[in-house]
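Severity: low
Component: inverse-folding endpoint
Summary: output formatting inconsistent between runs
Steps to reproduce: submit the following C-alpha cells with default settings.
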C-alpha cells in the first residue's frame, strides 16, 4: 500500500516540505494514517479547511495533546486560521478546562506565533466590559439557545 496522491497533496499543504520520520521507522502506520487523515476524512467531512483546523486545535487542547497541538498550530496558520482566532480558542478553553490544563498551550502558542514573526500581544478583541459582561453573556446565550436561558 502507498500513500495516495490526495493524501500527499493535503499533507504538503499542511506541512510544506516536511517528511515524517515515521516514513523510516513506521512506514505501515504512516501510510494508513496519512491515507485516513489526509484523504478519507478530508473527502468525507463537510468542514472547510479553516473550520477543520479550528476544531482540531480545540480538540487537541481538550484531550491534552500538547505535542500534536504544537505540530498542528503551524498547519492551522497555513490554512488561514488567524492568530486572533487561535488565541480565542485558547482563551475559551480556560472556562472549560481550567488554567492549569490550558497554560502549556498558551505558552506553546505564544512561542510558535513569535517564531512565525507575529508580534505579541495581539490587538485587543474585547467586546464587553466588566460592567456588561454578565448581561451581554446572558443575551448571547438567549440568542443561541432561546428564551429558556433567562
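Observed output (run 2 of 3):
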Amino acid at each position: 500500500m502507498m500513500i495516495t496522491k490526495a493524501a500527499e497533496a493535503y499533507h504538503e499543504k499542511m506541512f510544506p516540505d516536511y517528511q515524517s520520520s515515521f516514513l523510516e521507522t513506521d512506514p505501515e502506520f504512516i501510510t494508513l494514517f496519512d491515507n485516513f487523515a489526509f484523504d478519507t476524512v478530508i473527502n468525507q467531512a463537510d468542514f472547510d479547511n479553516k473550520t477543520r483546523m479550528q476544531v482540531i486545535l480545540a480538540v487537541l487542547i481538550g484531550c491534552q495533546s500538547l505535542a500534536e497541538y504544537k505540530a498542528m498550530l503551524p498547519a492551522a496558520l497555513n490554512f488561514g486560521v488567524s492568530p486572533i482566532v487561535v488565541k480565542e480558542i485558547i482563551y475559551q478553553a480556560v472556562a472549560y478546562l481550567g488554567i492549569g490544563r490550558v497554560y502549556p498551550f498558551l505558552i506553546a502558542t505564544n512561542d510558535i506565533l513569535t517564531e512565525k514573526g507575529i508580534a505579541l500581544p495581539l490587538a485587543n478583541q474585547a467586546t464587553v466590559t466588566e460592567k456588561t459582561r454578565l448581561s451581554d453573556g446572558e443575551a448571547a446565550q438567549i440568542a443561541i439557545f432561546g428564551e429558556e436561558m433567562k
